[in-house]
Structure formats: C-alpha cells, structure tokens
Amino acid sequence: MALPGMKRRTLLAAGISLLATPMILKETAAMAVSGDKTKMDATPQPQFNQFKLGSYKFTVFKDGATIAEKPYETFGTNQTPETVQELLARNFLPTDKFVNTYAPTLIDTGSDVILVDTGFGEGGRARGSGLLRDGLKAAGYSPDDITLVALTHLHGDHIGGLMEGGAPAFKNARYVIGQIEYDFWTDKAREGTAAEGGHKTVLANVVPLAEKATFIGDGGTVASGITAMLAPGHTQGHMVFHIESEGKRLVATGDTANHYILSLQKPDWEVRFDMDKAQAAATRRKVFGMIAADKIAFLGYHMPFPAVGFVEAHDDGYRFVPKTYQFDL
Predict the structure, then answer these.
(1) SS3 of the chain: helix, strand, coil, percent, to 5
(2) Mean pLDDT, residues 318-325 taken together
(3) Which of 33, 84, 205, 289 has its CA 20 to 30 A from that of 90?
(4) Where is the Metallo-beta-lactamase domain (predicted)?
(5) C-alpha distances in Å from residue 231, one per residue of 41, 140, 287
(6) Distance in angstroms (rounded) separating the CA atoms of residues 221 and 300
(7) How many Å apart are CA 206 and CA 159, to the nearest integer?
(8) Helices 196-205 and 179-186 meet at what angle, rounded to 10?
(9) Domains of the chain with CATH codes
(10) pLDDT per position as a tens digit, 121-160
C-alpha cells in the first residue's frame, strides 16, 4: 500500500534507493578518491561465513578465487568439449571459463579451535589468494588461537598456509595428517616425476611440522566428534572428515568433488587433477551417495563460497543445494 502523498514513481525510486544501499556502501568502502577521479580499490577483501552445527561454531574463509580457461580441459576430460560446454550452458554457466574458489574452515568446538586445510598462504598473495590470515583477523581469531590443523590431503592449495616467513604459521597447533598421504608425498620416488613439485612443497611445508603431528588412517580420530574416512582417488591418501555435534552432522569433503556442476551432476567424468581417475569417480559416488541418502550437510573445499550445502540424487548424479538459512534457525 502506498503511503499518503507519495506518488508511485517517488515510492519506486525510494525502494530502489533502499535496496541498493548495501551495495553502495560496500562499493564506497572499496573506493579511493584521487583528485576529482574515483577509482575502485581492487585489493581482495577478506570474506568469511559463520554458522553453528550443534554446539560447534564454523567459520568458512574464502582464501581466494581463480578464473581458468577452457573448463573441458580440466573437467570431463573423457568427454568431448561440446558435451562439457552443453552441460555448463544448461546450468547457466559460461562455456569458456570457470571459477575456482578455496575454503579453509575453522571449527571452534569450545575445547579446540580446529583449522581444516590452510589455503595458499604467503605464496598465493601475489595473485590474490592466501587471504586466510586476513580472514582470521576479520572473524575475531588469531593464528595463535588455533590448537589443531587437520589436512584432508597435501596439495599446495591446502598446505600453503602452514608456514609463514619460514616459521610455523600456527605456533600453538598440533597437526593431524593422513599416513598414506604423507608417505606418498615424502617418498623420494616422486623426484623426477609429475609429482615432484608437490613433493618439494610437502618437504618445505609439512615435514618441518611432523614432530607435532599425529598420523592417522581410515576411521582415525581427528578430535572429539570428528572422524576421518579414507576417500582416495584425487590423491592416494585423500580423506574426508565426518563432524558431529549434538546430533547434527556435516562432512568436510575436501577435493572429493571440485566443481558443483561438473563433478556432482556427472560424478563419473574424469578430472585432470585426480591422480587415479577411476578411483576418484568411485569415491565421489560413495561419499555423495552417502551424503544424499543421509540428508546431511557437506563442506566442499572448491564449492561456491561459502562452500556449504546439501546434495540430492538427480539423474545419474547429484544436484547441489547451497546453504541458505538452514543453520540459523
């Protein structure tokens, strides 16, 4: 109902102004004024999202995002480019580019402050990633608050933040690492292979922390209420973490699926980054089949930020249902 004395055009203009206010404020905060010219500050700003699962408080950070070309060269590599592009178009996505985001997550249990994966760290900041440290500060945490770091696997975008300036980034933390994963990446047999770069990164970022680490396998305990499950294929020792508090459940799926459309709707499609492509596909079906059947939430490291959602069975794969207010009521 229009207010007395207000014409429709005036009311409409006022409505547009009110709706636009949050965006205007956000943009204004990012602007730098030089003379009579206004320029946008392109410096990445820390982003985080918080929610409760039972008594556990989750904070998901956006460590950064990258835009890559030719998605069909990464996803669906056993399909024709046209088949991959058709699926993207059907889901209202560009067919020539895709966005990859990274989501390290803090779990505050009340007795532990647990970081699951660490992002790129200082090595990513030149290209707009490595934002976890800024995110921690914005969310009211310090690196020194973290008591445990749990790693789903040892790829660079998950372990890059472990060291800072040649020293441990989380000086008060213990570490939980998969034994199979650690043994694979530290093995000298990786030298001279396609895995040599990852081998060197693990030697630099993970091996110095081994004395403070607990090495676990399938079914191992990460912390109270958090259990690991071996989910291989992406890497040999890739793990997912089952998290439960007060009867509420969530699975941190790491890189089991790397795209919310191309990996979930088509779980059998091969992914360039998966070391054992057939095993990775079988793992996707096992993990997301369980998540869909049990109707529980999952947190996927490369899902659209804030990287949390649900899946339901759909055609020959799964449909991603992103988090909205499920944890707020």
Answers:
(1) 30, 30, 40
(2) 97
(3) 289
(4) 101-302
(5) 41, 33, 8
(6) 20
(7) 7
(8) 110
(9) 47-322 (3.60.15.10)
(10) 999 998 999 999 999 999 999 999 999 999 999 999 999 9
Strands 248-254 and 297-300: parallel
pTM to 2 decimals?
Answer: 0.88
Is the per-residue pLDDT at 9 higher than 50?
A: no
Angle at CA of residue 287, ends 218 and 88, nearest 5°: 140
The Cα–Cα gap between 159 and 156 comes to 5
Q: Give the model confidence (pLDDT) of 250-278 as tens digits.
A: 999 999 999 999 999 999 999 999 999 99
Q: If pLDDT is split at 50, 70 and 90, which confidence band does 329 have? A: confident
Q: Which two tokens stand for residue 114?
A: 């647990």
Asked if the bond preceding 306 is cis, omega within 30° of 0, the reply is yes
Look up residue 175 and give its amino acid: Y
- 32: number of CA atoms within 13 Å, CB side? 5
Structure tokens at 101: 């985001």
DSSP letter for 219, please.
T
**Residue 79 φ then ψ, to 5°:** -120, 170
State percent of the chain over pLDDT 90: 85
Judged by DSSP in three states, 229 sits in strand
- 134 φ/ψ sector (left φ>0, alpha ψ -120 to 50, else beta): alpha
Residue at 250: amino acid letter: L
Count of beta carbons in the 10 Å neighbourhood of residue 249? 17
Q: Give yes or no for a contact between 169 and 149, defined as CB atoms under 8 angstroms apart.
A: no
- Amino acid making up residue 260: Y
**Rounded-to-integer distance, Cα 254 and Cα 238, Å:** 8
Cα diameter, the chain: 80
